[in-house]
Amino acid sequence: MPGGRLNPGEGLITGAMREVEEEAGIDVELTGVLKLEFLPSHSRSKSFVRLRCVFMAKPANPNDEPKSIPDFESIGATWVSLEEMDGLRLRSSEPRHWAEYLAKGGTVFPLSVLETT
User: Fold this and answer.
1) What is the Cα–Cα distance from 41 to 73, expressed in whole angstroms?
2) Please, are residues 85 and 96 in contact by the beta-carbon 8 Å criterion?
3) Using an 8 Å Cβ cutoff, are 6 and 12 in contact?
C-alpha cells in the first residue's frame, strides 16, 4: 500500500498516482475512495491539519508488473492474495484491513466525494 505526502501545489489524486508510481513502479487509475480522514492537531508551538485519503486503484495497464528491486522509495512491491498476506512482514496491519474490507464487499465511494462546489 503506497503512501506519502503531497508536494507543494499537488492535488490528492495527482499525489496518490505519483506515490504509487514511485513506490510500486506502475501507473494506476484511481477508481474510488475507501476512507477520508481530517485530523486537526494543536500543540503549544504549532497547529496543523492532517488530511489522509485512502484510494482504491487498478493498474492502468493490467500487464504491468510492480517493481521488485529495492530503491529509495520502497523495498519492492508485489501482487498477493489475502491469504498470501499472512506470510509477509508488512509495515502495518492496514493493507490486510483494506483487503478484508473489500473481500467482504465494503463500500468504495466515488472519486466525486472529493469534488468541491
Assistant:
1) 27
2) yes
3) yes
Please tell me whether residue 101 adopts helix, strand or coil conformation: helix
What is the distance between the terminal CA atoms of the chain, rounded to a whole angstrom? 30
pLDDT in tens, 53-77: 999 999 999 999 999 888 888 888 8
> How much is the pTM?
0.86
User: Whose grid coordinates read 506515490?
Assistant: 19
Which letter does DSSP use for residue 6 in this model?
A: P
Short-list 20, 113, 26, CA closest to 65 = 26
User: Backbone dihedral region of 37: left (phi > 0), alpha (psi from -120 to 50 degrees) or beta?
Assistant: beta
CA angle 14, 22, 18 (to 5 degrees): 5
